[in-house]
Specification:
10 strands; binds zinc ion; three-stranded antiparallel β-sheet; about 325 residues; alpha+beta
Length: about 325
Amino acid sequence: MSDGDQVQDWRRIVLYGRNVASYKFALARALLQFGERGNDLILLSDLAVPFANEITRHLKLADTQATSKSSRFLEACRAFNRQEISEDQLRSKTVQLGFNNVIDAFHVVDHSDVRHRFFDDERTESRGIRLTEHFYRLVNSTQYGNLIEETESRWRLVETAWDFSISPNLLKVDYDHEERKFFMGVGQKRVGITSARAALDGYQRGRCFYCSAPISIVPGDPLLADIDHFFPWMLMSRGLPVLLDALWNLVLACAECNRGSNGKFERMPAFHLVERLHRRNEWLIRSYKPLRETLFKLAGRQEKARKEFLLKVYSEATRYCNPNPWEPPSRGPDVL
Ligand SMILES: [Zn+2]
């Protein structure tokens, strides 16, 4: 068993679990803050404030944090933001109301539990939850910093989608080339949501798209990933009639692959890498709204149509550039 198994399960929870409320993200982030502590039993009364703080912080970003109309717990969080209740009152409301479903549902993805549990429910015996060895493996993994950023990014995407409160098939995530961020918009309304790095990293499992070297999305880290256009951006200026500055064409690459001595720069990637891009995009599609709708809209609801779209772009693109494709050596395990 490698640390990767735990990281993978954590990512499944954050990226692929269905959401009726954002509590899972809040619990994920609150737990990651407990990683450094010696004691593996976390009393709900100790967890309550870090957990509720995540929710109160996000309520200021997007007032919709659940799909149901009313929630007594969210009302308490809003009251705290309006300074109508104290932190002690927020704590006791959170212990009473905040954990009901999230502790039961945290590990569920696609109707069953992930393989590794990160905590055991000891509410009855000990009024808390107990962190497991799998949780500590996660904390000690090189991906730890990335997971914190990815959880925040996924949360921003989900809450922004709820905040627009429109039909999912109208949602669209756009990339802003200057800011390297994703925006969500309908008509004139456009909201900046998350850095492209944080949104994409989980779907590449924290590794370079091309060579599988480990990458980071934490600002200032020496392994900080570059955002690369699989089909080079300049093809648009040469006349390729496809919007390449978009989610489906953006991948994270290590600096060596993107701009090292034998880097990709403006070359076309080797043909067989189209298959890998397709797989990466199918991972994105599994994550429900809003990324899924964005890809559906571009290339169809059927997997076959989406693959044909990529193959078509590849064959078109070769007409506009150097015919010698680029491919790097492998620098890690294949994850895509
Ligand atoms: Zn690389």
